[in-house]
């Protein structure tokens, strides 16, 4: 017998408390200003880039910070809940269930179904809520674009594609070569 989960209300007007009632079904449920956004599970190339980048970040992270990967909710207010593909947080900001403090770094690995969402919506939400650094990684055309928050808006601080490398200073010094993230 199959059971169906009924959404508690329309697409908008959601709170982070409403997310507790949603099924653990492999989909990613996120909120922006109370609007429910649902995206499919990632593809293998997405996961490959995510894993390689997580290993790279984990190797260089200072003791005062931690690296996590989705699904882990970042909930800066009651109407916003995002799950960056990778996130770096201060150890002091880690709670039992989710993260509410501004992130040190949010990383999104772009996919066909989330590209515009990551490049426009998440970009603006992360800046609005004080995420210090934001990186977008494209695994299909291997590349990275990195931004740091300056006076409330993002400024590009580095980019690389293919076999090029970029060394980024924040949140800690790290060198990323996009092809190395997907050629494993």
UniProtKB/TrEMBL annotation:
Recorded hits in InterPro entries, A to Z, give: Nuclease_put_TT1808 (IPR012296), Restrct_endonuc-II-like (IPR011335), Uma2 (IPR008538)
- What is a single molecular function from GO for this protein? endonuclease activity
UniProt keyword annotation of rRNA processing present: no
In this record, what's one Pfam family? Uma2
Record keywords: Hydrolase included?
yes
Q: Where does the Putative restriction endonuclease domain lie?
A: 17-173
Ordered alphabetically, the record's keywords are:
Endonuclease, Hydrolase, Nuclease
Designated name of the protein: Uma2 family endonuclease
For this protein, the record's PANTHER family field holds: SLL1072 PROTEIN, SLR1083 PROTEIN
Q: Superkingdom of the source?
A: Bacteria
């Amino acid at each position: 017998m199959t059971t169906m989960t009924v959404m508690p209300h329309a697409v908008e007007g959601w709170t982070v408390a409403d997310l507790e009632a949603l099924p653990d079904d492999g989909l990613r449920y996120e909120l922006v200003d109370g609007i429910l956004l649902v995206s499919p599970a990632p593809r293998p190339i997405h996961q490959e880039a995510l894993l390689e980048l997580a290993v790279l970040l984990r190797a260089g992270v200072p003791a005062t910070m931690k690296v996590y990967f989705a699904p882990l909710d970042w909930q800066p207010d009651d109407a916003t809940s995002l799950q960056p593909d990778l996130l770096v947080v201060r150890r002091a900001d880690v709670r039992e269930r989710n993260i509410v403090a501004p992130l040190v770094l949010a990383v999104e690995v772009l996919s066909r179904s989330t590209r515009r969402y990551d490049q426009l919506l998440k970009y603006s939400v992360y800046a609005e809520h004080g995420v210090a650094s934001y990186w977008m990684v494209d695994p299909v055309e291997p590349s990275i674009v990195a931004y740091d928050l300056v006076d409330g808006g993002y400024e590009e601080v580095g980019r690389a594609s293919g076999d090029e490398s970029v060394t980024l200073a924040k949140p800690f010094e790290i060198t990323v070569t996009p092809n190395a993230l997907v050629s494993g």
